[in-house]
Structure of Chorismate synthase:
Amino acid sequence: MSHNSFGHLFRVTTFGESHGPALGCVVDGCPPLIPLDVAEIQADLDRRRPGQSRFTTQRQEPDQVRILSGVFADDRTDGRQFTTGTPIALMIENVDQRSKDYSEIRDSYRPGHADYAYDAKYGIRDYRGGGRSSARETAARVAAGAIARKVLAGITIRGALVQIGPHAIDRARFDWDEVQNNPFFCPDATAAAEWAVYLDGIRKAGSSVGAVIEVVAEGVPVGLGAPIYGKLDADLAAAMMSINAVKGVEIGDGFAAAALRGEENADEMRPGNDGRPIFLANHAGGVLGGISTGQPLVCRFAVKPTSSILTPRASVTRDNRPVDVLTKGRHDPCVGIRAVPVGEAMMACVLADHLLRHRAQVGTEPGPVPVFQPESFQSE
Amino acid sequence: MSHNSFGHLFRVTTFGESHGPALGCVVDGCPPLIPLDVAEIQADLDRRRPGQSRFTTQRQEPDQVRILSGVFADDRTDGRQFTTGTPIALMIENVDQRSKDYSEIRDSYRPGHADYAYDAKYGIRDYRGGGRSSARETAARVAAGAIARKVLAGITIRGALVQIGPHAIDRARFDWDEVQNNPFFCPDATAAAEWAVYLDGIRKAGSSVGAVIEVVAEGVPVGLGAPIYGKLDADLAAAMMSINAVKGVEIGDGFAAAALRGEENADEMRPGNDGRPIFLANHAGGVLGGISTGQPLVCRFAVKPTSSILTPRASVTRDNRPVDVLTKGRHDPCVGIRAVPVGEAMMACVLADHLLRHRAQVGTEPGPVPVFQPESFQSE
Amino acid sequence: MSHNSFGHLFRVTTFGESHGPALGCVVDGCPPLIPLDVAEIQADLDRRRPGQSRFTTQRQEPDQVRILSGVFADDRTDGRQFTTGTPIALMIENVDQRSKDYSEIRDSYRPGHADYAYDAKYGIRDYRGGGRSSARETAARVAAGAIARKVLAGITIRGALVQIGPHAIDRARFDWDEVQNNPFFCPDATAAAEWAVYLDGIRKAGSSVGAVIEVVAEGVPVGLGAPIYGKLDADLAAAMMSINAVKGVEIGDGFAAAALRGEENADEMRPGNDGRPIFLANHAGGVLGGISTGQPLVCRFAVKPTSSILTPRASVTRDNRPVDVLTKGRHDPCVGIRAVPVGEAMMACVLADHLLRHRAQVGTEPGPVPVFQPESFQSE
Amino acid sequence: MSHNSFGHLFRVTTFGESHGPALGCVVDGCPPLIPLDVAEIQADLDRRRPGQSRFTTQRQEPDQVRILSGVFADDRTDGRQFTTGTPIALMIENVDQRSKDYSEIRDSYRPGHADYAYDAKYGIRDYRGGGRSSARETAARVAAGAIARKVLAGITIRGALVQIGPHAIDRARFDWDEVQNNPFFCPDATAAAEWAVYLDGIRKAGSSVGAVIEVVAEGVPVGLGAPIYGKLDADLAAAMMSINAVKGVEIGDGFAAAALRGEENADEMRPGNDGRPIFLANHAGGVLGGISTGQPLVCRFAVKPTSSILTPRASVTRDNRPVDVLTKGRHDPCVGIRAVPVGEAMMACVLADHLLRHRAQVGTEPGPVPVFQPESFQSE
């Protein structure tokens, strides 16, 4: 058991505080012989990096990642770097800490933030920038996710912001290609333009707002997931809920499924040419009985509005006196935006873990359903 | 790692298929010296037991539980039975299997069910009654949850059905006392009456319908939960998502939080008389930064409609031929109903696990926040 | 984390007390499609079963095992039973409990036994027959080991008693075929005859004696084991040390290696015809760097003399008064004898676990060393 | 599951290769509010550091450790640094790599070393200085052990070299105070003088030799350890066996116990004044039934001779051609010497883990046995 690890066979342990010397992670269990260039990890980190638009925190962190172990290159590999099967440690040094910004909340609890809970549990907290509870920790997740993607050859994982505040996208305009064209990871160009105006208002009002993120994996082989308590969707739910500020997770139709009737919700099947069934719908979001079906894996999660706002709210001090708190540090008006690459990373890590789990128990790569033939059973 | 275990320190491993000889669980890590009578476990099981109204499956299973290990009584304990700290094994024998009901789906995949996914993963499945993927497995969860409740002295965990199909309760009429007065665990007497008519229609149509369950724990001490990847809410999300047919999980305001502004969502605090803050709202649902705040812990989850319906749906056979499937076995028209005690049990198990985790790392019972005093720091 | 489980991917959880209703285990993670007949498990249990000679306890336990879950047979499998990938629960009911034999040690601590330690830790203990600390628990290990053997096709695991009290075998007479010809699992027929006389004396004196067991696996593929903290030898050491009364574990030359010089200890290699090296010696016992080399895996462990003896020893009562303790129950004069099949079972479980771990990370079956070819590296 | 972690609640994950940029560890689960100064960790590292006498490798590594996370100091703590309950990451940069020393063994396997096994398992290895299999990894263990010691207030853990090659100490001269007076951690001044001459001969002959280390913990409270598969001695066995080059582990009398009779081996008890029994002997080495008894915890382990020697040995190349191998790099003539602080560190980590495990399940600090009183049982 480890409080700061996730995954079992593709196992990620993160460390670091917002204003400490560095943050990072150790990825254990990664298969050997996978080509891994630090630039690939950096590319994913750059998508999550703060300060890239006026809609995210202005903290300037290059988030330069360094690989400390677990890879090897020599002349026999033509200088290319490969994983070796040993733990891959990644480190990102913190650069732009302005710790004095936080000195005044040293003794006060920001409403909606983890301040009070950490103090109540541990009796001590690194309050600078939120310490361990800062969203800065998610940089380590994104770095680990970049490695997980390399393990998942053939699987494409993409995320998008599908709602900001009360404003959802028009799903008829959903276009993955739009996601990189706006600072919101929004797949709907029209909505993105409206959101820019809306979020400017929120930002100038010293307020913040929530969001909903959708992450989809395509090319997932059938058979990933381990019932009953290692279900693929259960692990995804935990992974997404562990991201800062997340308050809800859905798979497929999610809460809307509660209102459906059995015959509406059942994803019908027809025989496919490759011996695998073709699904006629995907209410299930790619998982049945905790196991992937080969359909797109669809997960959504809701992020609450940033707790650190410029509007004063009633609170208490450490010694239980009343106080009004407003947070002057640099913050994201909507932490949901930068949660998009984090959600992708978490899905990648969960899938990599389950790929390894499948190999372990079933002994083969996951794939098309075998037609049952008694003679194919292992003989003694 | 274990596919069929959940929890770390209060660890539950379940086993058993729907139509095998027995199902059960092993609860490992339970503290010693807790009085435990088999009747207490049976009482919880009886709430989940099928065949108690026309709205649940007519399979007649007494679900009689037997304790195989981990407890002890002698004349020194006045004959009362106590836990000993060793693993507690519980067994429930299956009695009313009608396996021939299922012979015709031996070679066909029920849409929306785990049939195809299990076959694709394992190449073999016990199709009788759904085998391992049957909701019958949740009896073992409820039994384990009954033990977890004994560990959680002072914490009350209650569940209710708050939506069935598209019909939600009126929250103004929410009354915990009503939950036991109707076959739906519905906290709104008016809604319960309407639901009976509605569900009769669903049932007679050979259809099924989804539901939303809400589970609330009161009396939870501040400090339970272990950031970053052992967050209380992340573990709850996994626990609830692991229940059969669940497609979404929310904590506190859940998805509704996405539409809120920061100042609306922040749960303000005022100093309390006992040195602990008083919260003025509970949008967070009792968790901040993955750690309990002492407020009621609020979790909701959505259950999809039962996949086993009498309406024929298009599907495929094991050898990839087209087939129309309808399921003749005895089934719940709304599996969400019996999911209420299961949700309570899962929350109890998660809280018991985190109580033990807190004791381990912090070394004390969780409780009110200590006022920070440097001299209270452990000296060398 | 689980106190009563071992293994990670081939994971065994045991339960049960010596005089409770039943003992057993849950084996989780076993691959599917392995033929498994209850008679195969029973055969291994029968080798460990008590009361088979005058040199083991006279308790008469049939140790009849029952499979509760995780296997399936139907007409498509010609009635043969196969594993399904779901947890396999095994149960053995206790039959011949004579609990009143132990009533007098209810309040006294047997020197060298776990009585005092259990009471000190838990404040309560099931003292009947030693409760959870009884060697009866090892029946569950042997049952699990029988399943592990099925996973390890091509690997032969055999154990032998190589020393009883101060009397070691003559290694020049070591003959695996002799092991089944005497009640000691002794590979040296001459020693076995001498031991019978010796142990009769021990038994009649109301005393007991220790032993050394050697377990060897042949046919182990190269590559099993996961450095640094999942080393094959480290897991073997824990597995063997967890057996009742074990006080020491060695791999290969073990403690004798301390006295060797580097050039003596180095197992030299020569090229083999199949592309794999041929080792010229096996001081290492088949493990280098925590990874199997393909040589025979050799493990020895020392068992202390049975603590339950008829000779009175000074001790204390629960309320700290002096007492002389002698144990009248039925006991083995040398628990080391029945530890032979237990040691084999533990090695089988460890190897099965590492086989699955290897498949997970490396993605292939373990085997001959691949000649390094840069083009064989996974391309992107 | 993690290949590179040990411990469950006090959980250590290490990373790093001998000639990579850095090595280190993440310690997760450490209790909060423990004062921790980097100098305390450095002091332990300095005892293990190479190049301190002519009897260890001449590689010059300052082993300067840096704390990256998990501690906090401000004016309220008077500048003293305390643990916060978040993961503590430690990093040691490699400085004195002479990788070209190893270029010639790039394609050859050193007999007795992990070279062949790593290549066979992973198909790739960082051969520079042994890569991950280098004893340099143990620096991370010692650093983690220094933190573990801080968790174990009141427990003293000391190690000594008790045998080098065939030369054991005279136990009548055992004096802990001597351990720091010689370069061997030898508790027998006379033996230390003889060993210096002996080891000079070994070193000059380009050979190497094995050793036996003894580690003893005093002040261990009664009750640590979790049967059946979390036994204190089983976890110690795994911890010690996971150290490079270790081939055997003993608790208490170890293998010598096999030759004892039951009445010799039973550690008799007499009532003590403090309500706890006084033991009259310690054959058990402080553990009964896997649980500590309050007696000194005694563990010994055997280290084989260093595999890297200047004497040529027959071996094979990667492509299976014959080769004679001799290792020119800088090496310890007896790796057992520097294993002494490593063994101490491993015992500290195991004890810290079990202290936290005890707190979790039993809910109190381990301590004197409670006199059984039914009314002290938890009431409902």
